Request: fold
Amino acid sequence: MRNEVVFYLNGMRTGVSGAESAWMLSDYLRYERGLPGTKVVCAEGDCGACTVLVARFRQGRFLEYRSINACIAPVYSLDRSHVITVEGLKRPEGLHPVQEAMVRAQGSQCGYCTPGFVCSMAGMVDSAKRKGCSIDAKMVRNHTTGNLCRCTGYEPILDAGCSLDPGKIPNLASLYSQAPMEAEFGALIPSVCVGTQDAPVFVPATLAEALRLRVDHPGAKLVSGMTDLGVLTNKGKLVPGPRIALHAIDELHSWSEDDGYFRIGARVCLSEVEDALAGSFPEFSNMLKIFASPQIKHSATLGGNLMNASPIGDSTPFLRVAEVSLMLARMGSSGQVEIREVGIDAFIKGGYKELDFAGDEILTSIRIPKSDHHYALFKTSTRKDLDISTVAFAARYRIRNGRLEGVRLALGGVAASVIRMPDEEQMLESGQIGSGLFMRAADSAQARVNPLSDVRGSSTFRKVLVRNLFLKFGDRVMSEAGLPVSEVSV
Ligand SMILES: Cc1cc2nc3c(=O)[nH]c(=O)nc-3n(C[C@H](O)[C@H](O)[C@H](O)COP(=O)(O)OP(=O)(O)OC[C@H]3O[C@@H](n4cnc5c(N)ncnc54)[C@H](O)[C@@H]3O)c2cc1C
Ligand code: FES
Ligand code: FES
Reply:
């Protein structure tokens, strides 16, 4: 294994080993490299002041540049990538067009948030160029969901973003020559061991290697996109110790489709899932639009969301009703990788963060069966963007001859885990579609759940939300069935 993390920083080769390799990138940039343009405000992935652009080298080539939060990205996760910070966007001949636009539109006052907005918008320009589209206010808003400004006000920032013409701005890959980086990355030993003796960080390049490390280091924490673990680390809630990072294992990054299933690799990030499933599961893809921010979704993985096992994890209600199965790998006694397939209902055992998952296993992929079912996914949160669910509702169903068939229902935020509602499923299948049917199911669900009270809402409020979400589902079904919906309004 290589004992140095190697990446390029604004075109300069950078090697990091020892304890620094586990620092967050923002700290490394500011305190080790003298690049204070990358700011740190929340250190939780919420404000975007630490946004930088990263192109990862995978399977012999660079992927596109994507914005990420440097405050929750450990240096080792940048191995074999090119990082561009706000300082690196400026060229000898002048400011980057996004920087110029912010100056022209007076998009900055104290300036603390500005580098983050500039990096997010530079990533947006590249994305618009790839899609061949122009930039409008909606696009600027979507790409800066993860950036907060407390003093300028957003109008001048929006004006700056809307003034950008992707056709006239060079793409990020043209700012620095990628050829020498590719040549070096292609020749490197792909797996890495860095960190310290007490807290080694293993970055295996194959699944077999990772599974052997699972056996040899039973206490090591698996690390994926770090969006949950990075926050815990910064809050001092994650005990320092050995880590096994999964980002260098190519097979975990792939997704595929056959006649029966979509197979999404555990390391596929949520922005890729949003695109990959847009055609077949548009309801889920749309729900991901209000999941976190672009920076988070460029790092966070579907596997990490499921394995974090939060009762308010946003993908889990969909995964439950879609009846997915999980592929779990372990190293067999004969030295061969063994795969176990387990259905989602058996996998989620019901207690808080209680999963059918052994300490020597790794989730490799999620299989989503294709079907002609409809889906309804509702997320309620205190604000629309960049917020965690208070209560989430998911339903899968078919409408046949005025009745519902194949109903599966799941609720997040009302119990120790994301739960199914089998009694209400049966109830909804038992009668003709009509307002009374949904009223009965809504009343039953409200009476059955017993949520906790916390900062996001009291138990009573959550119970009312559950009822209203069932009624909202009723509106959706009635409308699809061609029936008047006014009787079942929330
Ligand atoms: C600002 C912010 C906003 C957020 N918004 C949302 C939101 O709107 N909705 C929401 O649901 N979540 C949200 N999150 C939480 C987080 O982004 C997601 O849970 C994310 O999907 C976690 O994925 P990850 O790859 O970053 O996981 P990590 O943080 O790397 O890991 C999470 C857990 O999963 C385990 N794990 C990861 N991969 C595997 C694997 N392949 N096999 C076995 N175990 C594994 C890890 O050991 C760890 O316990 C937010 C987080 C932040 C910081
Ligand atoms: S410092 Fe706020 S998102 Fe990183
Ligand atoms: S300019 Fe001060 S926080 Fe945005």
Remarks:
- The chain has three domains: 5-88+175-245, 92-174, 254-488.
- The longest strand covers residues 391-400.
